[in-house]
C-alpha cells in the first residue's frame, strides 16, 4: 500500500475505535450487533490494516449502532 492509503486507513481505524469506546461497546458486541463482520475484521480495521468493501462498511455501522454517514465523518488531513 502507498503511504497516503496507509495513513487514511490508520486514521479511519482510530475513528472507528474511538466511536466504539465512546459507545461503550467491545469488539465482540460489534460482531453480535452486525450481520457478518468478524472480530478479526473489526480489529484489522481499528488497526488500519484492512481496506474493505462497501458492504463491510455498512455492516460495521450496523454493529456500532450508528449510520454509515456518522462512520465516515472523520478528518483525513
TrEMBL record:
List the PROSITE patterns: HTH_CROC1
Matching entries from Pfam families are given as: HTH_3
This one is known as Helix-turn-helix transcriptional regulator
- Source domain of life: Bacteria
Q: According to the UniProt entry, where is the signal peptide?
A: none
List residues of the HTH cro/C1-type domain.
16-71
Q: Which UniProt keywords apply?
A: DNA-binding
Amino acid at each position: 500500500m502507498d503511504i497516503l492509503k496507509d495513513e487514511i486507513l490508520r486514521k479511519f481505524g482510530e475513528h472507528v475505535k474511538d466511536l466504539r469506546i465512546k459507545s461503550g461497546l467491545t469488539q465482540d458486541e460489534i460482531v453480535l450487533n452486525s450481520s457478518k463482520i468478524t472480530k478479526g475484521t473489526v480489529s484489522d480495521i481499528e488497526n488500519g490494516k484492512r481496506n474493505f468493501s462497501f458492504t463491510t462498511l455498512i455492516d460495521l455501522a450496523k454493529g456500532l449502532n450508528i449510520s454509515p454517514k456518522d462512520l465516515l465523518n472523520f478528518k483525513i488531513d
